[in-house]
Automatic annotation (TrEMBL):
Residue ranges of domain Ig-like in the record: 29-93, 110-199
Keyword Disulfide bond set for record: yes
Single Gene Ontology MF annotation: transmembrane signaling receptor activity
GO CC list: external side of plasma membrane
Designated name of the protein: (spotted green pufferfish) hypothetical protein
GO biological process, one term: immune response
Keywords: Disulfide bond, Signal
Species of origin: Tetraodon nigroviridis
Length: 256
């Protein structure tokens, strides 16, 4: 009888070493870009940091590209000498080991990194922009080139042209008509020859509406709507806006 009891006790030991439960902590991690940009050339790098809004605990981290978990567990994830196939949506999750099992946070909103293998990139900020505000478009060229001319296109039609080494364009007092697919062409002269490169098209989004505080003061925020005639469905707050303010959406008359 004693032998049987001893055998049963040993058989339960592996089970006791397994996590008892998997708990989900109500934290939303945030992925931010420390260096680099959302859109980079192949061979360049970008640093991403995962932050869990809990300063009382020590967290480990899980990183994902799409639905695939990456074999990296640090807080800062680095794409070093990125390749075109590194393009994807990156997200993270916090994990903490406790006596009752692993505690996991929610998975963060993904950040899309696009690695371009071409010679020119069009960079548009902010996204989306609001009607009446400004939009900055930059034409980046791989390497250091003494640019002689840069042309900005929207939907294949020339919008602006800069002479000399000036790759930046500022579109002010935006209207809905400024929304479209943007690209750029950059040219430079070398050894009495003119070289030109053109970027792929990227979307430049312009939305109606603005956000105001309860006092009526304008607050620099981005408003996204699924349809121009509907109320905005999501508001992204910038750092310059008071987080505790009551926000109202201002739309044009006739919106349903």
């Amino acid at each position: 009888m004693e032998t049987v009891v001893f055998f049963l006790a040993l058989s339960t030991l592996p089970r006791l070493s397994e996590p008892l439960v998997n708990l989900v902590a109500p934290y939303n991690p945030v992925v931010e870009i420390l260096s680099g940009d959302f859109r980079i050339f192949s061979g360049e790098g970008v640093e991403l940091r995962c932050t869990v809004p809990d300063h009382m605990s020590t967290w480990q981290y899980r990183w994902f590209k799409g639905s695939e978990e990456l074999h990296y567990h640090g807080q800062i994830f680095v794409l070093w000498k990125a390749r075109v196939d590194d393009t994807g949506k990156y997200s993270c999750q916090g994990v903490r080991d406790t006596v009752v099992g692993d505690i996991r946070t929610l998975q963060s909103v993904p950040v899309e990194i696009i690695v371009d293998g071409g010679w020119a990139l069009t960079h548009v900020t902010p996204q989306p922009a609001l009607v009446g505000h400004s939009l900055e478009v930059t034409c980046r060229v791989r390497g250091r080139r003494p640019l002689s001319e840069v042309i900005l296109y929207r939907d294949g039609v020339e919008v602006m042209r800069n002479q000399g080494n000036n790759p930046k364009f500022l579109l002010s007092n935006l209207t809905i008509e400024d929304q479209g697919m943007y690209s750029c062409r950059a040219s430079w002269d070398t050894n009495s020859q003119t070289h030109s490169v053109i970027s792929v098209h990227i979307p430049g989004m312009v939305r109606r509406g603005s956000v105001q505080t309860a006092s009526g003061d304008q607050c620099q925020q981005l408003t996204e709507s699924q349809d121009e005639a509907r109320l905005p469905t999501r508001v992204k707050t910038s750092r310059s806006c008071p987080s505790a303010a009551i926000l109202f959406l201002k739309v044009k008359k006739g919106a349903g």
